[in-house]
Design brief:
mainly alpha; 3-stranded antiparallel beta sheet
């Protein structure tokens, strides 16, 4: 093998065979021709490789530049929109396909496109538009990422109900105007679909005092156990399920957990929010045993849950395409409605409302978590006041205690997503003006006392004493402590608790 291989190596190339005979016999010209052909082949191979490399390099450079500019243009229009990354990808793909980017030879003309070309991007069949900085409903529309193209008899039924009851849509829009900016801010901070801001419309019609037959309460309709699981305190003084701030944080956390449990399927997540994840998992298992699909639309669920998601989808469709369905959405300013003030002592809520010339009914719509006329003895001592009254409240605090300095209370205006609600180190209040603090007597029941006698002694009606102290009867025991207002307020400010509408 070695000898044969060596002999093969020693064999001259085809153009050198019988070299001496070809030269001597006049074949030198043919030899030169073959040599020139070989040289041309080698040169052509090298040249083509160089050109291809140059074009590839130019293509990569242009593409990187194109992507960079696309990011800049889309980001300028869309900001921190939850779908911005999808929009940027769509914009780049569209530019290459429409402008005929051929083999990397021509530079991408889309570099010269005006920024307005990126104002409309199609995602999941819906045309998204950049965020409108004036209307909060438009801001929600741009943040819609769920698939709303689904349609069936139930969705059509609820869509028609909304269309035929414009007064209901007007009511939820009016109520939503107090809380919607805060909810949208919180959803965006967690990169969640902004359609979820419509969920309180389904749950409570944006009524923080709503109470259902299943003991669910608040904007987001938490039942007691689920509320406690997500940190919502519930006692005789305070119900975190009705607290707009605390319940919104808890609802977002709950929805995020459900979405993770159901592998990112929001239809199943919303159904689980209504009926519980156990019931959804049980329905999926039943379908699996019957070799049926396990998506929401294929499950057999309770009548309420079967209507829950279609009702939500119907409302989201009306918001997404109001022109198509002939529905008007009253613009809501895309700006904060309230500011959060954190104190360190009990607050007389009626005096706080009076200090800023605000009707108690409107004040308690923002502070619905409190069940009495003051904050709980052990907190929270947080109150929510409209932005326009922030300066007036600060003046009321200063007037009540001239020694109160700026760093003795915390006033966040406007609210920023993710901002901690509790006071930061060094900002705790050591004193508080009496003008907004609690005006209460604590009366220790003695032998022979009755509610009638105590009411006459303190000029407070028996009904008010029972309401404040949550007494179901007139029976009191020696040693009990009763909370009595220094000046009996009216009960007329209380919003009647109503159950969310069910169809």
């Amino acid at each position: 093998m070695k000898a044969k291989f060596k002999t093969k190596l020693q064999t001259p190339p085809f153009f050198c065979k019988n070299f001496e005979s070809k030269v001597t016999n006049g074949g030198f010209s043919r030899f030169l021709l073959r040599l020139m052909i070989l040289g041309c082949l080698i040169y052509g191979t090298v040249a083509c490789s160089t050109v291809s490399s140059t074009h590839t390099s130019e293509h990569t450079s242009y593409r990187q530049k194109a992507q960079s500019i696309a990011v800049q243009k889309v980001t300028k229009l869309w900001g921190k929109h939850p779908s911005a990354h999808v929009i940027r990808k769509k914009a780049i793909e569209r530019s290459y396909s429409q402008l005929g980017y051929l083999f990397g030879v021509h530079p991408p003309l889309f570099l010269e496109l005006p920024i307005s070309d990126f104002k409309h991007v199609e995602i999941q069949g819906s045309i998204l538009k950049p965020r409108d900085t004036s209307d909060l409903w438009d801001r929600i529309r741009t943040g819609m990422t769920l698939d709303l193209n689904v349609d069936n008899a139930l969705i059509e039924k609820h869509r028609e109900w909304y269309i035929n009851h414009p007064e209901h849509l007007e009511k939820i829009q009016e109520r939503a105007s107090r809380y919607l900016y805060f909810i949208v801010q919180e959803l965006e901070s967690r990169n969640l679909p902004l359609e979820l801001a419509l969920l309180p419309a389904i749950e409570s019609a944006y009524n923080p005092f709503a109470y259902s037959h299943a003991s669910a309460s608040g904007l987001w309709q938490f039942i007691p156990n689920t509320g406690k699981h997500y940190g919502l305190k519930q006692n005789g003084w305070y119900d975190g399920r009705r607290d707009v701030i605390a319940s919104t944080h808890a609802a977002i956390e709950y929805l995020s957990d459900l979405n993770e449990d159901f592998d990112g399927d929001w239809m199943l997540s919303l159904a689980a929010y209504n009926t519980g994840s156990f019931n959804i998992s049980k329905a999926q298992l039943r379908n699996q045993l019957l070799s049926k699909p396990k998506d929401y639309w294929s499950l057999t669920l309770s009548k309420e849950t079967q209507n829950y998601v279609p009702r939500f989808v119907a409302l989201a469709q009306l918001l997404s395409k109001p022109e198509k369905y002939g529905v008007e959405w009253t613009p809501i300013p895309n700006k904060p409605e309230f500011t959060i003030v954190t104190l360190t002592r009990q607050v007389d809520l009626l005096k706080a409302a009076k200090a800023i010339d605000m009707e108690p009914s409107a004040f308690f719509q923002l502070n619905a978590g409190y069940k009495r006329w003051s904050s709980a003895p052990v907190g929270p001592h947080r109150i929510v006041i409209p932005i326009e009254h922030s300066e007036k409240f600060q003046q009321a605090l200063a007037y009540g205690n001239q020694s109160l300095s700026q760093n003795q209370y915390e006033n966040r205006s406007p609210y920023q997503p993710g901002t901690a609600i509790t006071s930061q180190p060094g900002t705790a209040i050591t004193s508080q003006p009496r003008s907004v603090m609690e005006g209460w007597y604590r009366y220790l029941v003695k032998a022979g006392d009755s509610l009638g006698q105590i009411s006459q002694l303190f000029n407070v009606s028996v009904k008010e004493i029972k309401s404040v102290n949550q007494l179901s009867s007139n029976h009191i025991r020696v040693g009990d402590t009763l909370l009595l207002p220094r000046k009996a307020p009216s009960l007329s400010y209380r919003t009647e608790a109503v159950a969310p509408q069910r169809w």
